[in-house]
Amino acid sequence: MSFAQKSKSATVIRSSVAWLIALVMFFPILFLTVTAFKTELQAIAVPSVWFFEPTLENFTEVQERSDYLHYAWNSVLTSVMSTLLGLLIAIPAAFSFAFTPTRRTKDILMWMLSTKMMPAVGALVPIYVLSQKTGLLDTRFALIIIFTMMNLPIMVWMLYSAFKDIPHEIFEAARMDGAGLWEEFRHVLLPLGMGGIASTGLLCLVLAWNEAFWVLNLTSSQAGTLASLVASYSSPEGLFWAKLSAVSVLAIAPIVVFGWFSQKQLVQGLTFGAVK
Amino acid sequence: MKKQNIIAAAVGGVLLSSAAVSMAATELVIATVNNGHMIEMQKLTNHFEEANPDITVKWVTLEEGVLRQRMTTDIATKGGQFDIMTIGMYEVPIWGEKGWLKELSFDESYDTEDLLPAIRDGLSVDGKLYAAPFYGESSMLMYRTDLVEKAGMTMPEQPTWDHVADVAAKIHDPDNGVYGICLRGKPGWGDNMALLSTMVNTFGGQWFDMDWKPQLETQPWHDAISFYVDLMDKYGPPGSSGNSFNEILALYNEGKCGMWLDATIAASFVSDPSQSKVADKVAFAQAPTKVTPKGANWLWAWTLAVPVTTTHSDEATRFIEWATSKDYIELVGEELGWGKVPTGTRASTYENPKFREAAVFADAEFKAISSADPTDSTLNESPYVGVQFASIPEFQSIGIAVGQQMSAALAGQTSVDKALKNSQRSADREMRRSGYY
Fold first, then answer.
1. Which of B119, B185, B319, B382 has a CA-to-CA distance to B175 between 20 and 30 Å?
2. ipTM of the shown complex
3. Chain A residues with CB-CB distance to B265 below 8 A
């Protein structure tokens, strides 16, 4: 076998494996979407039914029973605002950690990361009581603060990794040209670190969008996001898989479309941030 | 002059907006679960709002576990997020006694005497009603008439567990995807322990003796759990330790279970042709018995209650009075169909010919609910109220711990003896810690 033939076979094998992995990863989404168009009886059929007359009945019922736009708006508002607030805090913090490190920088970064190691439920009671005492229960403001705090360690770490890639000398050159801290920040850090900032923001937006634990525990009638809408379709007595699938499709659709358009930045963020 | 006009306009504006605020409707926030009857109530709420223009209703639907957790947290921390709570028969007497719920009193036209006595008594403390039943349920046996007939067997109105085991053996046909019997196995005080408590009751056992000592290593517990594990090993579907109501409902409606003992509410699902492939082949019998009929079938109700933390208790009581009235049942029957009315709460429902015609399970359900007595559910005297639970705050954690042991025994991860020994130890520790002895 010639080198060209060997190379071609290797490419075919690599592509096949990649396709297989992609299909396995995508299968739950496909199954969810297909189930959303089934009747409840078809949804529980074993083995699964793949050829059937699709129905929009589940989507109609979701629209009739729930104010989808109210939940969707809450999701958009809380995830976007928490991401912006997080970036506002994390960018200066990461800038400082990356370019003016002290003896304690690594310890502080590790401490920040360690807060992610505690299960969220461990902090539920104090946060619930604090929210209640301050009148923030069931408010979007409380969710924005909590989502920000929840994602802040990841944001700082990702941005720290991204900023570390910017050569230190560029800042020195800027200083030689008379740039102050603000000019360094605005004209050097932001343009050069924009890729990292964008991918960090996108990832945190997705994490905030999907957050369910705090939403389920701190909201009731006003501030619930799409995560709480999905949870409300689970039933202890009765078949609900098709309707749950329909509401799940509606809940993930906006973020999947958003992720599709920003996948390049997302992948970049995941590889240079979490893994490096 | 111009200045005066501006001031007058401002004052007028303030007065108008104050009037608008005072005329604004009171918003009632109701926490509930996503059960069929609750969804119907949400759909019909506009009738209540039309009759009560000073009230609007906002629904918060939560998953059952989350609902319990949220209710408890909200009431204990005086959160006041909900004006009406959907709670179960287990919580009502405990919360009522603690003073967490408002006492409910309704007009004479509400006809409290029409509420089924077992349900009404289970929701009262010292004769005071703390929650109104929205729908009630017991447990009964649902079976496939075609399979039983084909096997040359019959099913009496109230079979024994031994007879059920015989039928299961005859109709068990796993090669053709039919399992003799499907029973709950998923751990949880409201999941597998609801069923197993009734089995223990009818095998002659109980949760606690009169000194509140746990009785989990007694012979009736051993016999009941051994019988259950053996029955499911031989004639149950694979993976039973993960099955609860919904999982078995799916199996049954697909025609994969010959028999199923579970909540009476299942009868309306399995006999509904739009969701069951075996709707025309289902019949009902009372829950099986062994040494005593006492406690063989459970009793449960989903209820509506008003927490003391609400500032809209009058409006909340008005809503509950509407949602649990005879008129509401009539409204559901006329608007959505008589097969969909919430059952298990009022004697008048079972006397209604329209309902009896629509619900093939009406007689069996009424008999099951009427025969359950939470105050006398064990062969030997017990200090607690409740058929499938003991109405004490400690029961929830004990029930969960014991449920996990029973599920492990069913899955073959431990022996029945060891599971009961571990259960007894954890129940004993909990009761000692709580100062019962």
1. B185
2. 0.73
3. 237
pLDDT of residue B42: 92
Q: Which domains does chain B have, with CATH numbers?
A: 25-130+301-358 (3.40.190.10), 138-298+375-433 (3.40.190.10)
- Answer yes or no: is pLDDT of A78 > 90: yes
CATH superfamily ID and name for A64-275: MetI-like (1.10.3720.10)
Q: Is A120 on the interface with B (CB under 8 A)?
A: no
The partner residue sitting opposite B77, judged by closest CB among A46, A132, A138, is A132
What CA–CA distance (Å, rounded) separates B125 from B94? Answer: 9
Closest residue, chain A, to B269 (C-alpha): A238
State the nearest Cα–Cα gap between B126 and chain A, in angstroms: 31
The tokens describing B244, both together, are: 């609860």
Interface test with B, best of A237, A240, A243 (most B CBs within 10 A): A237
Q: pLDDT by residue (tens digit) across B43-97?
A: 999 999 999 999 999 999 888 888 888 888 888 888 888 999 999 999 999 999 9
The CA distance from A64 to the nearest CA of chain B, in Å, is 9
Separation CA B180–CA B406 (nearest Å): 21
**Token pair of A91 as six digits:** 């960018």
What contacts 24+ positions apart, CB below 8 Å, involve A253-261?
Answer: A254/A72, A254/A75, A254/A76, A255/A206, A255/A209, A255/A210, A256/A29, A258/A205, A259/A202, A259/A206
